[in-house]
Design a protein that fits this description.
Helices cover about 40% and strands about 15% of the residues. It is of the alpha/beta class and about 210 residues long. The chain has a single domain, classed as TIM Barrel, CATH 3.20.20. An eight-stranded parallel barrel has the order 1-2-3-4-5-6-7-8, surrounded by six helices. The radius of gyration is 16 Å and the shape is globular.
Length: about 210
C-alpha cells in the first residue's frame, strides 16, 4: 500500500499507558472508526513473538478500514507481520536499510528535526516525514522541540508528505495552520481519552478544517 497526502490527515501512534482494563484492539478499532487515516504500532518493551502476533492482528483491523499500518522502529516485525511499512527515527535503522529489507512497495517513514535530515531521508527513499516535537510532550520526554519556522522550512524543502507530532491536541492543532504540513500525529490526545471514537472524530474534523 502506498500513501498520498490525505493519508496523513490524522495519524495515530498507539500507546498502552492509558489502557487500564480496556481492550487494546477495541481501542484501535474505535480510533479507526472515528476517522484515523494512518496507524503506527509502537511497542518498546514487548517480547518479539508477542509483538509479532499483535502486529498481525492489528494489520487485519487496519486493512478492514483501508488505513495504512506501519510498525515503529522494528523492520523485522514489519516484514514478518505483513504490515504496510515501518517508521524509523534518527537513532534507529536507517531509511536506506529499511527500504532494502522491505522493498520498494512498502511504506518507510522517517522522523526528522531539521531540513538537512529531511532532505537526506527523502533522497534515501522515505515516503513521508514525521517532524517533532512541535509542542512539549509527556509521551517522549527526550524529544527536542521543533520551531514553527523550522517546520515550515522542512515542508517547503521536500516533496513528500509531512506530519507533525509532539504534544498535539484538539486545542493547539490550529497553531500549525499554514506550516505546510499534511496532518498531525497524536498519541495521548486520542488514546488517553475515555471515548476514543469521539476523540478521533473531533480531531479528524478539526484537522480537515485546519489543513484543507
Amino acid at each position: 500500500m502506498k500513501l498520498d497526502k490525505s493519508s496523513m490527515r490524522l495519524y495515530a501512534v498507539t500507546d498502552r499507558s492509558w489502557l487500564g482494563s480496556k481492550d487494546f484492539f477495541a481501542q484501535i478499532e474505535d480510533a479507526l472508526k472515528g476517522g484515523v487515516t494512518f496507524l503506527q504500532l509502537r511497542e518498546k518493551d514487548m517480547p518479539f513473538d508477542d509483538f509479532l502476533e499483535e502486529a498481525i492482528k492489528i494489520k487485519e483491523i487496519a486493512k478492514k478500514y483501508n488505513v495504512p499500518f506501519v510498525i515503529n522502529d522494528n523492520v523485522e516485525i514489519a516484514q514478518k507481520s505483513g504490515a504496510d511499512g515501518v517508521h524509523v527515527g534518527q537513532s534507529d535503522t536507517s531509511c536506506t536499510l529499511a527500504r532494502e529489507v522491505l522493498g520498494k512497495d512498502k511504506i518507510v517513514g522517517v522522523s526528522v528535526q531539521n531540513v538537512e535530515q529531511a532532505l537526506l531521508a527523502q533522497s534515501q527513499g522515505a515516503d513521508y516525514l514525521g517532524v517533532g516535537a512541535v509542542f512539549s510532550t509527556s509521551t517522549k520526554k527526550d524529544a527536542d522541540n521543533v520551531s514553527f519556522e523550522t517546520l515550515q522550512k522542512i515542508c517547503a524543502a521536500v516533496d513528500i508528505p509531512v506530519v507533525a507530532i509532539g504534544g498535539i491536541n484538539e486545542y493547539n492543532i490550529h497553531k500549525l495552520k499554514n506550516s505546510g504540513i499534511d496532518g498531525v500525529a497524536v498519541v495521548s490526545a486520542l488514546f488517553a481519552k475515555e471515548d476514543i471514537f469521539i476523540a478521533a472524530k473531533k480531531l479528524y474534523n478539526i484537522s480537515n478544517e485546519v489543513f484543507k
